[in-house]
Structures are given as structure tokens and as C-alpha cells.
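note to self: the first set is below, dont mix up w the second
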Amino acid sequence: MAPRIRRFTLPELARGYRGDLGDEYIELLHFRDFDAPLAADDARLEECRFSYVQIESVRNARLIQCELEQAGAPALQAAGVFLNDVRVNHSRFGSADFAEAQLDGVVFENCKFGWLNLRGATVRDVLFRNCQFEEIDLGGRIQRLGFADSRAGQINCHGAQLREVDLQGLDFADVEGVDGLRGAQISSLQLGLLGEAMASHLGIKLGS
């Protein structure tokens, strides 16, 4: 059930400049320390690193064997993005919209999200380690998703299609759409926390 994460090591990278992000194909560049937000819509990036930058938009882009460290945005526009073997570390996003995106072999570590939107996304082999969320929308096709030492205020499971999803490492306060949890693994403690929501969904009245 654990996500299958493939290891990779980036080679030596040249300095990347804002103008480089206008190219359709970008490889072996390190984008670092930009004052203004960056955008790379529709670009293909291979073996690149982003550090100490604000990323505004990567809609319909393809990121393959890339690293993001100390990156972030008040509102990341990433609808339709394709992430394959990507690592995101020590980053913060007010919202991260991955609607209709594809995430395969992605690790988020020490990251904070206001709202993470995976509605309509195809997610496979993704791990969140030591991450915090205000809300997660899991309404996509999700396989082998795992959490470790992470916390969320609310999980929205309406329309979720879960397969081999392990939520035991996610401390959450509330779940919307408990019927969408089919295919997930939870702990006995989490089951107790879900009792009231599940009873309400099934039309069961709780006595005093």
C-alpha cells in the first residue's frame, strides 16, 4: 500500500533566468532567488530545481525529475499539470489547485497548504511527510497515496475514487463525504473520530 517513490539525483545545473521559462522545453537549470512570481504554463521542465522563489502558475506544464525547495505562492495555479518524480520541500502555498492534474511519484515534505485541490486529478504514488493542511479535496482518482506525521483541518471526499490510500499518518479534524473513504485505510482512533459523521450518513440516531 505504501507509495512507490523512485529516487533520483540531479546533475550539475546551470543558472536559470526568467526568460528561460518562456521556452517550450527547459532542462538542467536552477531557478533561484527571484523577487517576482514565476510562471511556466505549458512548458516541459526536466531535471530542474526551483529554490527560494514564488511560483504563480504551472498550468498544463510537465515537470519531470524536478525539485522545489523553499518555494511557494499565495495561490498556485497548477490545473492540468503533470508531475513525474518531483520533490517539494519546505514550501508553503495558500492554495494549490491541482484540478485535472497528474501526479506520479511525488513527495511533499515539510510543506504547508491552505487548500489543496485534487478534484479530478489522477494521483499515484504520492507521499506527504510532515505537512499541514487547512483543507484537502480528494475528489480525484487516487492510488497509493500516503501521509506521515501530517495534519489537516478538513478532508473532502465527495466523488473520491480511492485505492490503497493510507490515511493513518494524517491527523484530521473533520471529513466531508464519508462514503468517498471507500478504499482508504484508517486507524482505530480515526474510526472513532468518524463515528458521528458515519452515523449521520447512514441515518443512525445517537442516544445520549
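second set (the one i keep forgetting abt)
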Amino acid sequence: MSHATLRLVPPSVLRPTEEIAPARVGEVIALILDRQGWTQPICVECDTLAVLDGHHRLTAAIQLGLARVPVRLYDYAAVHLTSWRPEITPTREEVLRRALSGRLYPPKTTRHSFGPLEPMAVDLAQLV
């Protein structure tokens, strides 16, 4: 569906598009610490660095004080976009506008499909 480049980037440069559920962040932190590693990259639009998937992972990384996080960079035209919420119909333009303005969607609004991804694992020591 879409080809993506894997990179390690500072979490501070990423632009969220959705709010998070705070309880979920604690669960993600526990998984990262238990595994002492990162197994699923944050999916990001390549030009604006808008977060398409991984808002809880991003917040967990910030709370853990990580210097870098694994991200996959996508050409947004190649990513399928739908909504988890029947009352909201997001567009690519609106998702990017929200990333740039900081006016976030509610948690679990956008649903992005990326196709099959190669497995990855990064030791936590590489991210601090």
C-alpha cells in the first residue's frame, strides 16, 4: 500500500493530530519498560511530521524522557484514511491542518491503514 522509511527522531519534532487517553499511556510505558525496547514505530506523514498512528507511544516516549523514537515516514497520498467515529469524517487536509495548528481531534478519531509492515525492534538504550 505505501512504502515507508524508518528513522530515529526526537519526539519533540513530531506533531500530534489527536488527544490521548491518559490511562493508555501508562500501559504503553509499562510495555516499553518490560520489553526494554520499542517494537512498533510511530507512523508519521513525511512532510509535516504529523502523527498518523502512535499518539500514546509518542506521549509515553516524552514521559520517559527519550531522546529519540522510531518512526516510519509516509507519503500521505499512499495511506488509507477512515474514521473510528461515525460522526467525524476526517480528510487528509484537515488532519494536517490540525497537526500544524495544535487543534487536536478527540482520541481514536482517525484510522490510518498502512499495509503490511516489516517487524522492528530497537533497544531502549538506543533511545535515551
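remember for set 2: Helices lie at 22-35, 55-64, 92-101.
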